[in-house]
Amino acid sequence: MIGIADTGQAETDLAAGTLTCPRCAGSLQPWGHARARTVRDHGPTTVALRPRRARCRACRSTQVLLPAVVAPRRADTTAVIGAALQASARGIGYRRIAVRLNRPVSTVRRWIRAGRDPQHAGWLRAQAVAWLARVDRDVLGGLAPQPTRLGEALTALAAAALTPAGPGLPARLTVDANRPDHLWPARRVSGASPAGLRFPLCRVLTRP
Q1: Averaged over 70-80, what is the pLDDT?
Q2: CB atoms within 10 A of CB 88
Q3: The predicted structure's pLDDT at residue 165
Q4: 132 burial class (0-12, 13-18, 19+ CB within 10 angstroms)?
C-alpha cells in the first residue's frame, strides 16, 4: 500500500509509468480499484472513497494507492486520529478526548496507547530527526521542547513533513504514526502539501 498526498498527481504519474513499486522499484500501471469504503471524519461528516489499485510490470505485485486522509484498516480519518494524539500530547485524558471527538472510549484509548508507547514514540522522533538531518539541519535547532515523548515525536514529524527536500531526495516524508515499522519517502508528490494527521503545522502522510 502506498500513501498518496495528491491523488491527481498520482494518477498522472501512474499513467506515465513514473510511479515505482516499493518492492522492486519496477514501474506501476493502473489495475482497477480497491473496494469502496466509507470512514468517519470530524462530527457527522463521512468520507467515501474507492482507492486506485496499481500493478507492478516487473514483479506483478499489486499496490493500493490510499489517499492520506484515511488510514488503512481504520474506521476514522487520519485527521480524527491525529486530533486525538495531539490532544493527548497536550495532557488531555483519553476519556475527555473521546467525548470531544464523539468516539468510543476504547477506540481513543487504543490510538493513544499506540502513540504513547515509549519505543514507538522514540522511534518516530528518531526517524523524523534523521530525515531533517538529511534535508535541512537548521530546522533541528528550532524544534521546541515538549513535556512528553509523544509531543516530541509529533513536533519532529510536523517539522519533517513540512521541510522540502533538496535535489536528489524524495519530496516529502511519509509516516504512519500508528505503526512504528513503516516510514519512507513520499512517492511522486513534489509540490503537494503533506496530508493526513492534522497537527498544528502539518498533515502527515500515513501508510500501514
Answers
A1: 88
A2: 24
A3: 62
A4: buried
Residues 6+ apart with CB under 8 A from 114: 120, 178
DSSP assignment, residue 21?
A: -
- Cβ contact 199:80 at 8 Å: no
Residue 167's pLDDT band, with cuts at 50, 70 and 90, is low
Q: Provide CB contacts within 8 A for 109, sequence distance 6+.
A: 94, 98
90 lies in which domain range? 2-204
Number of domains into which the chain is organized: 1
Q: How many angstroms separate the CA atoms of 112 and 135, rounded?
A: 30
Q: Report the chain's terminal Cα–Cα distance, integer Å.
A: 7
Q: Cα dihedral angle (37, 177, 98, 149), rounded to 10 degrees? A: 180
Residue type, 113: R
| pTM (two decimals) | 0.73
